[in-house]
Structures are given as structure tokens and as C-alpha cells.
Amino acid sequence: MLKVKTILAFALVAVFLCAASAFAAPIVIKYSHVVAEDTPKGIQANKFRDLVAERLAGKVVVEVYPNSQLFGDGKELEALLLGDVHLLAPALSKFQKYTPLLQIYDLPFLFKDMAAIDRFQQGPNGRALLTSMKDKGIIGLEYLHNGMKQISANDPIRVPADAANKKFRIMTSDVLAAQFEAVDAMPLKKPFAEVFTLLQTKAIDGQENSWSNIYSQKYYEVQPYITETNHGILDYLVVSTTEFWESLPADIRPVIEECLKESIAVGNEAAAKKDLEDKQKIIDSKRSEIITLTEAERGQWVEAMKPVWKKFEDAVGKENLEAAIASNK
Ligand code: LMR
């Protein structure tokens, strides 16, 4: 009788465990970002959510929070480390507090185009940088593109002297600060969510960003001039914490990684497309005049900003700088 009771008890526990695992709450991945949904990052994040919903239904749910609605760029990395969000894709310029190495991407006029950036990012130096924040508990999963940066302003900016004494909003990067200081301008580190109001109220004179952000944030409506400088890049690093990423079950993580990879390909395609389309929409709006530089004018910018490379050479790593220069060939 005792034996029967024991068998019954075991059977009940087994049934209970099966039922519990069938009804286990799905893993929730909160993905927060600061841009609009119809941008390369917004498109990538939504695609990732949809792919995970398709392939891991009932097991994993991705919640996307765009437009700084959950955390702005001043707070999002802290929130990640606290476990309040699990996935972010901050601009590469926003990691200074965690590693100096990623500042390589901020050096002005370093990469000649997106193809050069791709070569660097997919090469050994670019791949090694993905783990540059491991000691801080942050893991770089993959790069994501946006585009080259342009300068918008209240006044026409053609040569470096035109930028002198003007206030430009920058992301939280000392390299970007040094870049504007090199032309005697005044850089101000401000969160992305505040930029439109700062421009609209003329609290600042200008800012630097990709065509996609200038269009989706409507900067072109309050900035009468945009200079096509292509002087730097706005790219992202999709990050999580090592703790969270390694806690994902072994049968689930590869599927999530596959969804991430595919969504990044979609985001990168959108980046290339939007770079052209959003620029054209700004031209068509006639709200902002686009200034194209002559070779001699562009040369003046390159010359004026070149000392920034030397200043940050040790911080970003000489070998990284050499590899980045080589990626232009
Ligand atoms: C910015 O702060 O200007 C950008 O990094 C915003 C973004 O994420 O594209």
C-alpha cells in the first residue's frame, strides 16, 4: 500500500512539473531605444521582435520601447546594468564611460564611407571591440548601421571658421567635443530627446547627425542649413549584459541570435535606403538648404580636425587606428 502511495505521489509531482513547464511564463526581453520607429534602428528592433514572436512563440517575448519612452540615452546603459532593460543599441559614441576603445568610431574623417566601416567592423579589430566592455558586464552582440553624419545649423556653415563660437549639440563623447573644439566651436553634450527643443528655441546653433535622424526628428524644420560634410559616422552597438545573455536557455539563445542577425541585415538595408530617401525628402520639403562642399572647403575641415586623431590615438589603440585607416583602401 505504501509503495502504491509513493508511486502515486511521484506521478502527481511529475504531472505537476510538466504542467508547470507548459505554462511557464515566457522570457521577456525589453529592448529600449531613443529613435523613431521608422528609422534603421526602429525597423531593426521591430523586425527582431516579430522574428522572435514567429520562432519562439510562447517561450520568448520581445517588448520594444522606442522614442526614449522607457529610458533616454543618458540613463539607458545604467538601466541595462540594473536589469531594467535587456537589449539596447546606443550609438557607438555613448559608451565612453565603459570603454575608451569604441571612441575610434568618433574620430572625424576616419572612415571614407559605409563600406570602409563594414570592412573595419567585420575585420579582427572591429570584432575584438565587441567584447571591449566585458569587464563592466556589457556584451556587444552586433553592430548596426545608421549613416554618415552631417552638420545642421541656423547659419550657413561652409568652412571651419563659420562654426567658430557656435554651440553644437553632441553625444556624450570627448572625441566629438574635441572635434568641435578643433574648429573653435562650443560642443554641448545633451540627450537626444532634448535636441529638437534646443534647436527650436535656438538655445543651441546646430548639431550633427545622420540624414535619417535629421529627417525623423524634424531638425530640418528648425534648421535652415544642412552642410553635407560626411565627417563622421552614426552607428550602433546592440548590447546586453553578459549575465542576462548567458542566462538564456541553451536551446533558445541560438534562435534569438539568429533573429538578431537577420533583423540587423534588415536594419542595415533600411539604413542604406533611408540615407538617400530621407535626404531627398528634406530637399523636397524646401525647409532647409543643403550645402555641398567643394573639395577645397572639405579639405579645410579635414585639416582642422586631423589633430583629434593624435590626441586620442592612445585611448582608442594605435593598432585600431591603423586598421581603421587601412579599411579605406
Ligand atoms: C543621437 O543621440 O544623436 C543618436 O545617437 C540617436 C540615435 O540613437 O540614433
Written account of the structure:
The structure is a single chain. This protein is α/β, with parallel strands linked by helices and 329 residues long. It has a domain at 2-89 and 130-145 and 235-266: D-Maltodextrin-Binding Protein, domain 2. The chain has helices at residues 2-22, 40-55, 76-82, 114-122, 124-129, 160-163, 174-181, 195-200, 211-216, 242-247, 253-285, 295-305, 307-316, 318-326, and strands spanning 27-32, 60-65, 87-88, 138-148, 150-153, 167-170, 186-189, 206-209, 225-228, 233-241, 289-292. It has a 6-stranded mixed β-sheet. Strands 2-1-3 form a 3-stranded parallel β-sheet. The protein has a two-stranded antiparallel sheet with strand order 4-10. Strand 6, helix 7 and strand 7 form a beta-alpha-beta unit. The protein is globular, with a radius of gyration of 23 Å. The termini are far apart. Bound molecules: (2S)-2-hydroxybutanedioic acid (LMR). Residues 34-35, 73, 91, 146, 171, 192, 209, 213, 234 line the site of (2S)-2-hydroxybutanedioic acid.
Uncertain regions spanning at least 5 consecutive residues: 16-20
Q: Which strand-content bin applies to the residues?
A: 15-25%
Radius of gyration: 23 Å
Mean pLDDT: 94
User: What name is given to the CATH topology of the domain at 2-89 and 130-145 and 235-266?
Assistant: D-Maltodextrin-Binding Protein, domain 2
CATH architecture of the domain at 2-89 and 130-145 and 235-266: 3-Layer(aba) Sandwich
Name of the level-1 CATH class of the domain at 2-89 and 130-145 and 235-266: Alpha Beta
Main sheet record:
6 strands, mixed
SS element count, helices: 14
Q: How many strand units?
A: 11
Question: Which structural class is indicated by helix and strand composition?
Answer: alpha/beta
The span between the termini is 82 Å
Helix content: 40-55%
List the secondary-structure elements in sequence, H or E.
HEHEHEHHEEHEHEHEHEEHHEHHH
Question: So what's the overall shape?
Answer: globular
CATH superfamily of the domain at 2-89 and 130-145 and 235-266: Bacterial extracellular solute-binding protein, family 7
Strand order of the largest sheet: 7-6-8-5-9-11
